[in-house]
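Page header: ASSEMBLY MODEL / two components / 204 residues total.
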Amino acid sequence: MNPELSLQLDRVIHEKGRLAIMSMLAASAELSFTELRNALNMTDGNLTTHIRTLQEEGFVAVSKSYANHRPLTTCSLSAPGRQAFASYINLLEQIVRQHKPE
Amino acid sequence: MNPELSLQLDRVIHEKGRLAIMSMLAASAELSFTELRNALNMTDGNLTTHIRTLQEEGFVAVSKSYANHRPLTTCSLSAPGRQAFASYINLLEQIVRQHKPE
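Prediction written out in full:
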């Protein structure tokens, strides 16, 4: 048993809401703020706060543009974000293996 | 991609320090407070707070006794704690599989 594994988990990604956001972004090139909000059933304020935290960490890039004369905010994982998420998932995999050896 | 998986993770277990404690207890019949503290490199106060939270949730049983005239506090997973931890690990496994399909 190596409890260090859990303690190594990236604190920014580990929060459940941000983990859900990173999961969705890892599976797409980019997603709009609205797509994220609807899929995650989060309030605007909650999603905005999480996205800002991920942006400040350099994990998520946010671009603002217009579509049909309406503001459109899209989010995508940065290269460091994709790398950090892959490391996070690798750690989860090791934790699972400790408890469910094949 | 199913972001619901992340959002289903048990909030009490998901906190990194508590996840580390639950991981250690899942692998043992019981552990003393001192063994946990030394393995996890936590302060007494931090470990006490986490153990209390897990105890209040009904996941961890704490017993106090004496060994060699010294107080001895031991912790173990309750049956509901073991069940909740198994469910948590199963969810982690599904999250990993979403991102690392075999």
